[in-house]
């Protein structure tokens, strides 16, 4: 009986040591996860404070989101130990999803701002072309328009000058045609009289 009692005590002590080791491991995992969560929350807070509308910032957020998703996936693998770890994995996933929503919102806003800037630039160019038309004439306005489309200044001026010359010839021809028609009309009226 004494020997069995000693064996039972030894088994009990071994189980206590094992239980204590497991508790220490679980406590360490919880502490590590809490530190990781805190670091991620601080990183997210720092990124929110530095919100920048540039493409570089959006790309940076995308990379961080990928890292957060990878971290969340890794945490989910570790999360089998305790229910608290499962909650932590869900929190990281939620934060990753929120960050993705934020990225998409910033992209949409940046796209709208770019469209507005493009529209403003086009309208200003149109107004400038109209001003040139009024102040310097059709040839200068056409040259400006061609420059805006990518032609160099000399080529644009040469093309605009040629078009103006063609337009002038066309107007002269039309005027002569009207004069001829009027002359013929007067001639036929004179013959009838």
Structure description:
This protein is mostly helical and 193 residues long. It is built from five helices and no strands. The protein has helices at 2-49, 55-78, 83-136, 138-148, 153-192. Helix 1 runs parallel beside helix 3. It is rod-shaped. The termini are far apart. The model has no long low-confidence stretch (mean pLDDT 80).
Spans where pLDDT lies below 50 across 5 or more residues: none
Any idea what the radius of gyration is? 41 Å
Q: Quick one: how many beta strands?
A: 0
> Overall 3D geometry?
rod-shaped
The chain-level structural class is mainly alpha
What value does the average pLDDT take? 80
Can you summarize the main beta sheet? none
Percentage of residues in DSSP E strands: under 5%
Helical content stands at: over 70%
Distance between the termini: 157 Å
Taken in chain order, the helices and strands follow as HHHHH
Tally of helical segments? 5
């Amino acid at each position: 009986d004494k020997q069995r009692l000693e064996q039972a005590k030894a088994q009990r002590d071994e189980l206590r040591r094992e239980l204590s080791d497991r508790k220490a491991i679980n406590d360490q995992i919880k502490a590590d996860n809490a530190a990781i969560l805190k670091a991620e929350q601080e990183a997210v807070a720092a990124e929110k404070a530095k919100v920048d509308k540039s493409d570089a910032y959006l790309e940076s957020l995308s990379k961080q989101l990928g890292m957060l998703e990878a971290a969340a996936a890794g945490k989910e693998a570790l999360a089998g130990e305790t229910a608290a770890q499962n909650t932590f994995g869900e929190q990281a996933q939620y934060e990753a999803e929120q960050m993705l929503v934020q990225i998409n919102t910033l992209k949409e806003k940046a796209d709208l701002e770019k469209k507005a800037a493009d529209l403003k630039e086009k309208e200003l160019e149109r107004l400038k072309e109209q001003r040139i038309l009024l102040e310097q004439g059709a040839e200068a306005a056409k040259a400006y328009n061609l420059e805006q489309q990518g032609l160099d200044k000399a080529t644009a001026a040469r093309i605009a000058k040629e078009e103006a010359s063609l337009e002038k010839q066309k107007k002269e021809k039309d005027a002569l045609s009207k004069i001829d028609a009027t002359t013929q009309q007067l001639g036929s009226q004179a013959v009838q009289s």
